[in-house]
Amino acid sequence: MTTKNTYWEYSPRNFGNEYTIAVANTLADAESYEAEGYTRVDRSPALSRMVWRGDDATQAWVTVEFNGVEVDDRFRFARALRTGTGG
Question: Which of 10, 27, 54, 61 could serve as 20's disulfide partner, Cβ 3.0–4.6 Å?
Fold first, then answer.
């Protein structure tokens, strides 16, 4: 069963520069992220955090997943989600 995209964030060490953003478009994947301790977040902040590169003093360690599979190019994936051509 498919549903609209839901967005999730997980930062096991609670570091502001180290986190996973996940996108689920099935109920089973959404339930899985919730069970694994991910926090549901709104679309706009999730997409912004997907493409965050860090700043002069901070390296960004960002992983992006779609339905449990790591995304190769988080920037391209975020662009596709923003424009409605992916996800």
Answer: 10
Number of domains making up the chain: 1
Angle at 9 between CA 45 and CA 74, to 5 degrees: 70
Q: For the chain, count helices (H), then strands (E).
A: 3, 7
pLDDT confidence of residue 1: 53
What is the 8-class DSSP label of residue 85?
Answer: S
Residue 3, amino acid: T
Domain housing 18: 2-83
Encode pLDDT of 20-40 as tens digits: 999 999 999 999 999 999 999
Q: Judge contact between 48 and 60, C-beta under 8 A.
A: no
